[in-house]
Amino acid sequence: MNLKMRFFRNSFVLALGFINPAVLQAVDNSSVAIEKPAPSSAPTVTGEGKVLPKGVGRARVVHKHYTGAHGFDNQGKRLNIGLNRNTAASAFVAEYGLTEKLSFRMMLPYVYRNELTLDQEQFKKSEVFREKYYASIDKFSKNLQKAGLCSGVQECRELIVDRGFSLPRDSVIPLPSGEEVHLKAGTRVSQALEDIILNSATPPKEGPTGIGDMEAGILYNFFSSDSMLVSGGLGLRMPTGDFDVPEAKRPLSGGVYDIGARINVDYSPISYLSLSFQEQLEFAASKARWKRPSLVNNAEFNQADPELGGDSAPNERDYEKKGLSSNTLLKANLNLGMLHPQMQIVSLNSSYNFVRERAIYLDNRQHVQSSDVHQGTVGANLSLLSYRIPLEFEVNYQAPLAGTNSRLASNSLESSIKLYARF
């Protein structure tokens, strides 16, 4: 499983508008707000589709910290297979209003913590381990049947698991990768198979750090009135991060060029409240080359020949993301100026996201299933724009609510600083 992409995204898709606009909170007419000497008595809040005014730039530094130990199985049940994630990254985002209706954004992320651990005792309680364990036993049973030590799958299982069958002589266990595990006489087969599975499932704690995938995009305002705004955007994610890393170490890149599109509808029934809807889609415009990891040391690529005693699947294959990924956002933004004029510098938000990830294929064979996660977010924004100070601060906390086929669905805490300037 490509842990990198399942939890980091591919990996910092939070900052650019067409990728994750939930962290964007454009100001309402920034060029005017920056010039106001004092807060007005009737502030407005803006939706997710607001473009920057012509000649106004915004620089943002966004920090995001991911943690998580739970996920969801293919039936939507909460899942804990023992994985524990601790990842942190920052991103620099530059935005500029090209016209009154069109703005440009670009983002560059930097991952400075990429940690993942496995609680082996918890993993051994999971259905994932159970499936792998008994599949290994059934495969090894064929050798015992050939030797006449047992006559069927169930009898062989009992011999290995219940009666603790040990190897009568030094033996070699071939792995699907073409690698071999050498075992001494007297080794209990059940323990040996368990150790092989745990070794291949346990990720290196420290993954690579560095630059992730760069993103760039535009946002265009199609319609604007006192209470409604309709905008659309296009964007491109470029594989500038390091993809040439074994899966267990969590690559920093998605490996492919992704093209995205989004549509925004914002509605403000009163000046203190903004309701936002956004739908974004993306698809892969290229493929990558995937390298098979070693089953003996998953921090390295496989050097053995799978044709020799393995499953014959090549060590290098075409890596492809098929179909569309999507992110549906529903968000409410409330300005506290409705309670008191001096509180208009503070806004609170709450949002719901439904995120669907694409399936990953290797040489046209499914490698990772598509997954989906329902997420809830709460946050707050502090804006000093109305005091002629071109700064905003924002913090958001996001948690997974439900999902399917997601072995690790992370919580995240995000903070950002935004600086505005007129050019």
What count of helical segments does DSSP give?
Answer: 6
Strand order of the largest sheet: 1-4-5-9-10-11-12-15-16-19-20-21
* H and E order: HHEEEEEHHHEEHEEEEEEEEEEEEEE
* Helix percentage range: 10-25%
Q: How would you portray this structure in words?
A:
It is a single chain. This protein is mainly β and 423 residues long. 14% of the residues lie in helices and 44% in strands. The protein has six helices and 21 strands. Strand 9 and strand 10 form a beta hairpin. Helix 4 (127-146) crosses helix 6 (189-201). Mean pLDDT is 88; it is low at 1-42.
Structure at a glance:
This protein is mainly beta. It is built from six helices and 21 strands.
How is the secondary structure organized here?
Layout: H1 3-8, H2 30-33, E1 56-68, E2 71-72, E3 78-79, E4 83-97, E5 102-118, H3 120-124, H4 127-146, H5 153-162, E6 171-174, E7 180-183, H6 189-201, E8 210-211, E9 214-224, E10 228-238, E11 258-270, E12 273-284, E13 288-291, E14 316-322, E15 325-335, E16 346-357, E17 359-362, E18 365-368, E19 371-383, E20 391-404, E21 411-422
Antiparallel strand pairs: 1-4, 1-21, 2-3, 4-5, 5-8, 5-9, 6-7, 9-10, 10-11, 11-12, 12-15, 13-14, 14-17, 15-16, 16-19, 17-18, 19-20, 20-21
Helix pairs in contact: 4-5, 4-6
